[in-house]
């Protein structure tokens, strides 16, 4: 009898584990997946989350990242512009769901999709296996069924590794902010660059490379793309406009080794399908083809000189389209105002700097402008002027700025806080302490404060080092 009871307990325990273990796995995966990260490790995601006012948003695979000079578009149209393009192996659905989550009513969305998006049926494992980790900003689903499918198809080892990755991204998010702000100040809007060279070991022709989905599934619009159209139309309703463009390719033999009638018919199918859904696709795909000398590292990536041409093509296409009003009616004043609003918002995300805290040169509470890349023990100034911004709670501050610095030769250093002159000091050498006294009332409570430095003798340290240096900041404190 006792053995029978033990057997029953064992069966119950086993059944409980069989039921509860998958349930715990699903719930823990979901909980980790939905945790929001305010300051993403991804600069493109950060821009999407935190730029203010109207935006022009470009989304596709890396093709668009190399095809367009995003900041040139921004200057031309006087609209803050973000190039989200990352990898064409990532599913269009997740890109659209992310857009839908962060889109605003005045935003304009441009989709210069690679050819594969129109005919692809499956999602690459590289995306599925990293969605909880380095691609966590894509963790958005239309249905619980989609999420369960994602969980089911993620190997357990990836689940464990991605928990650690996402935890690290959450812990370190404050450290990403200064670099993101610096990139924004340097007019980085998400265009891509690479030193990689074309892989001549890949024997595929241009057409075999760019039409990989069509050669596998036929020159037809896939059911997956048609399903995504529901999302595109939802985004269209939430935004000012959704516009399609044709992809950019490079190679003398592109569009030559396949049946041209087949391709022409496919182009017509795409145009007709988008038109049926009240979506416009602009331009001519054959005019977006560049020569072999314009190839960067793949048939879909063009070099900087071709990027300049393609960007101007895009400007002309948009200005001469039925959307011309939304691209030509913006004024410089509103654009500058919107940029300032975005920058102030980004700065507001800084953790406050409290008095007497000694901040090292890599502090996440400081934002450096016109400084070189930080080194192990200090960060060098760049050229004649540099700035450090911080957010403070200036209660009971006496008004003393303490700097621990090195200099390159003799330097007269003039300092201002929030454009108020606080003095100048002359020094020369290593491990020098400079003290500037100031009226604490010049600090902005709970807002951003900026210290500016001007240098009397910035210069190159030697003939090999082309940098223009003056002051190497090791740390600072405000009392």
Describe what you observe in this structure:
With 479 residues, the chain is an alpha/beta fold. 40% of the residues lie in helices and 17% in strands. The protein contains 17 helices and 17 strands. It has a 5-stranded parallel β-sheet with strand order 2-1-3-4-6, with helices on both faces. Strands 8, 10, 12, 15 and 17 form a 5-stranded antiparallel β-sheet that branches. Helix 5 packs parallel to helix 13 (223-238).
Write the layout of secondary structure elements.
Blueprint: H1 2-33, H2 43-50, E1 55-58, H3 62-67, H4 70-77, E2 80-83, H5 92-102, E3 108-111, H6 116-119, H7 125-128, H8 144-152, H9 156-171, H10 173-185, H11 206-210, H12 212-217, H13 223-238, E4 241-245, E5 249-250, H14 260-276, E6 280-282, E7 289-290, H15 304-319, H16 324-328, H17 332-348, E8 359-360, E9 367-369, E10 379-380, E11 385-391, E12 400-407, E13 411-417, E14 420-427, E15 432-437, E16 448-455, E17 471-478
Parallel strand pairs: 1-2, 1-3, 3-4, 4-6, 5-7
Antiparallel strand pairs: 8-17, 9-11, 10-17, 11-16, 12-15, 12-17, 13-14, 13-16
Helix pairs in contact: 5-13
């Amino acid at each position: 009898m006792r053995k029978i009871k033990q057997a029953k307990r064992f069966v119950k325990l086993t059944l409980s584990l069989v039921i509860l273990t998958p349930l715990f796995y699903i719930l823990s995966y979901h909980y980790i997946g939905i945790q929001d990260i305010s300051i993403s490790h991804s600069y493109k995601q950060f821009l999407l989350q935190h730029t203010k006012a109207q935006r022009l948003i470009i989304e596709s695979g890396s093709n668009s990242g190399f095809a367009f000079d995003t900041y040139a578009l921004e200057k031309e149209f006087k609209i803050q512009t973000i190039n989200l393009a990352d990898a064409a192996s990532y599913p269009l659905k997740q890109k659209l769901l992310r857009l839908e989550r962060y889109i605003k009513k005045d935003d304009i969305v441009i989709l210069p999709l690679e050819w594969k998006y129109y005919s692809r049926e499956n999602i690459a494992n590289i995306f599925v296996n990293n969605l909880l980790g380095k691609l966590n900003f894509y963790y958005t689903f239309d249905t619980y069924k989609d999420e369960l499918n994602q969980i089911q198809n993620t190997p357990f080892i990836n689940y464990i590794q991605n928990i650690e990755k996402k935890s690290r991204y959450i812990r370190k998010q404050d450290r990403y902010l200064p670099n993101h702000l610096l990139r924004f100040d340097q007019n980085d809007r998400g265009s891509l660059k690479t030193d990689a060279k074309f892989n001549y070991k890949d024997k595929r022709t241009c057409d075999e490379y760019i039409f990989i989905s069509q050669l596998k599934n036929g020159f037809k619009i896939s059911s997956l793309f048609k399903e995504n159209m529901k999302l595109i139309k939802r985004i269209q309703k939430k935004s000012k406009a959704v516009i399609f463009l044709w992809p950019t390719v490079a190679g003398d033999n592109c569009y030559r080794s396949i049946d041209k009638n087949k391709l022409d018919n496919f182009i017509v199918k795409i145009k007709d399908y988008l038109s049926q859904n009240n979506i416009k696709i602009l331009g001519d795909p054959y005019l977006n083809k560049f020569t072999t000398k314009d190839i960067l590292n793949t048939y879909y990536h063009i070099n900087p000189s071709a990027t300049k041409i393609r960007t101007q093509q895009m400007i002309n296409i948009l200005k001469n389209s039925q959307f011309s009003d939304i691209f030509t009616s913006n004024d410089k004043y509103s654009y500058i105002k919107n940029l300032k609003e975005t920058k102030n918002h980004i700065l507001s995300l800084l953790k406050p700097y409290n008095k007497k805290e000694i901040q090292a040169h890599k502090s996440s509470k400081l934002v450096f402008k016109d400084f070189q890349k930080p080194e192990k023990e200090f960060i060098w100034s760049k050229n004649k002027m540099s700035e450090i911004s911080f957010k403070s709670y200036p209660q009971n501050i006496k008004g003393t700025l303490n700097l621990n610095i090195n200099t390159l030769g003799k330097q007269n250093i003039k300092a201002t806080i929030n454009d108020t002159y606080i003095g100048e000091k002359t020094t020369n050498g290593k491990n020098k302490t400079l003290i500037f006294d100031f009226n604490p009332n010049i600090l902005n409570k709970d807002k951003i404060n900026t210290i500016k430095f001007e240098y009397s003798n910035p210069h190159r340290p030697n003939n090999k080092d082309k940098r223009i240096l003056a002051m190497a900041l090791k740390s600072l404190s405000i009392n």
